[in-house]
Design a protein that fits this description.
The protein is mainly beta and 224 residues long. The protein folds into 3 domains: 35 residues; 65 residues, no CATH class; 103 residues, Sandwich (Jelly Rolls). The strands form 3 sheets. Strands 2, 4, 7, 9, 12 and 13 form a 6-stranded antiparallel sheet that branches. It has a 4-stranded antiparallel sheet with strand order 1-14-10-11, with no helix packed on it.
């Protein structure tokens, strides 16, 4: 019997026994790594210090009881991060209402976040979602009382948007500051299917010159 014929017979026997199919199935069934996880590396270059007027500075809000919207801004967030809205000027004009910010998340999808204010509010309301950009800010009707002379500023906080969704806040390995491992891990907030709700508050100082890197484990629920 020639060698080709011999190998051909062996192959037929394997097919008949189902062993070859079993082996093929064994490997193909794990092709999407269901029993493994992938480490993600996210680099945040030179995030600026948190501020109160980085996006909108002392803007006029409603000038009557009607709703109002602005779509022109001082600047956009330097990196995806949470926003902070602060009323100013004559805060006695501020009425209990909701201010809605619309923009884009880390992956470019449109998102909104509602910021609630009480009557005569004079302190900042801090958001939780990470905005890559802001496209509009809308005040609901009756957001101010006469004489409608409050002002509004929007800055950003220290919650940096994570590039993918995570299943657990503990699914991080470590973070680095300018190449050195941070002794204290960042404070994580996670969400399984909305990437804008996944944020990292690094322990190191954000000052416009420090670079941060986060090594974490994603859950494959949020993809570009």
């Amino acid at each position: 019997m020639t060698k080709p014929t011999y190998y051909f017979l062996i192959a037929l026997m394997a097919l008949a026994s189902g062993d070859l199919f079993a082996r093929t199935e064994k490997f193909s069934s794990d092709i999407k790594l269901p029993t493994q996880q992938m480490v993600e590396k996210m680099t945040v270059t030179d995030p600026a210090a948190a501020g109160t007027a980085d996006v909108l500075s002392g803007s006029v809000g409603p000038t009557s009881a009607a709703a109002a919207t602005v779509s022109t801004f001082v600047a956009q967030p330097d990196v995806p991060r949470n926003l902070v809205i602060t009323p100013g000027s004559t805060t006695a004009s501020v009425a209990a209402c909701t201010v809605t910010v619309t923009g884009k998340n880390y992956l470019g999808a449109t998102i909104t976040e509602a910021f609630a204010f009480l009557d005569n509010a004079s302190t900042a309301t801090t958001g939780t979602k990470a905005f890559k950009s802001v496209t509009s800010v809308a005040w609901a009707a009756s957001c101010e009382d006469s004489p409608y002379d409050a002002s509004w500023s929007i800055g950003y906080g220290e919650k940096i948007g994570v590039s993918r969704c995570m299943a657990n806040a503990g699914d991080i390995f470590f973070s680095t500051l300018n190449g050195s491992k941070e002794a204290t891990a960042p404070t994580m907030v996670v969400d399984v299917d909305e990437v804008e709700k996944n944020t990292a508050d690094f322990n190191g100082t954000m000052n416009g010159s420090n670079d941060f890197v986060l090594y974490f484990m994603q859950n494959y629920r949020c993809q570009p």
